[in-house]
Amino acid sequence: MLTRRDCLTLTAQTCAAAALMPRLLAAQQQGELIRRPIPSTGEELPIIGLGSSATFSEAAGDDDIEAVRAVLEAMFEQGGTVFDTAPSYGASEEVAGRVVANLGARDRIFWATKLNVAGFRSQTPADPEAAREQVETSLRRLGREPIDLDQVHNIADMDTQFAILEEYKEQGRIRYVGTTSTFKPQYEALEGYMRNLPLDFVGIDYAVDNLSAEERLFPIAQERGIAVMVYMPFGRTRLWDRVEGVEVPDWAREFGAETWAQFFLKFAASHPAVTVVTPATSRPEHMIDNMAAARGRLPDEAERRRMVEFIETLPS
Predict the structure, then answer these.
(1) How far apart, in Å, are the Cα atoms of 285 and each of 15, 72, 202?
(2) Chain segment 40-68, per-residue pLDDT in tens
(3) CB atoms < 10 A from the CB of 225, how many?
């Protein structure tokens, strides 16, 4: 039975979605999705994808198949293909694999996952047998070979784990390999790996109020021809807190940003080093909103500076 609180929540969500729809429909009429090439092959990806941490992980953990199905369907319907997951994101990988199979969409998805049997904080070495079993589990969950992308999570025991990913790539069972980090103390080590290992991708945190990657890692990625997958373009919830009660500035509509999500995502995607941005969500209306950031045009360098300066004026 629905409680009064449930009804009020549903009503609020319905009203919010209804208010957003005209802007989303307008954004969808701005043309084809913007795509960027993977430097190592030239294969093009839509610049906005879907991550599976945070609320997506919560929905998967609750076995909320309908929520997972709805957000993946919304991505596909809007032309998106890139789905980023990890065995450590609760049930995200397993549940998404089942839903993608049920949708008959295994060949429509760019499946990116991670390898993380080593403890990156404790520096626990990776067990090679456990690492290979984790890769095999990811392959089974997708139900298709090869996996598009597998990355060592948080540069943990790269000697063991990246070598194993290279083996799978040589066997044709993984198409692209890489590593990730969303911890600035790891950036120095990550720079070394980017310079010395044959990485196809790196996954890193980047947002309009978090420019460290732009200063340290993006130049290496461009020099070495490494694709960049951006995580946390909303600073988890940090940016939403900063813009609460603030209207999107009128000048942002010059490059098609009608909502704050589009503002944040267009900023992250507009850096020329970035290949794809993967915000997490479990709500289809948010997925549609996010995908709208891949339409129209992206801000130029002067507009990017203005975006940074505007956010800097807001309380942190």
Answers:
(1) 12, 11, 28
(2) 999 999 999 999 987 888 888 888 899 99
(3) 12
**Contact between residue 84 and residue 279 where contact means Cβ atoms under 8 Å apart:** no
Tell me how far CA of residue 264 lies from CA of 2, 60, 140, 271, in angstroms: 35, 25, 35, 12
Q: Decide if pLDDT at 23 tops 60.
A: no
Plot region of 91 (φ>0 → left; ψ -120 to 50 → alpha; else → beta): alpha
Domain residue spans in the chain?
34-312
d(CA 122, CA 1): 47
Provide the residue type at 306 as one letter: R
Model pTM score: 0.90
The pair of three-digit structure tokens given for residue 36, joined into one six-digit string: 């960027």
Q: Which amino acid is at 308?
A: V
**34-312 — its CATH code?**
3.20.20.100
Bridge partners of 229, per DSSP, are 203, 276
d(CA 266, CA 234): 11
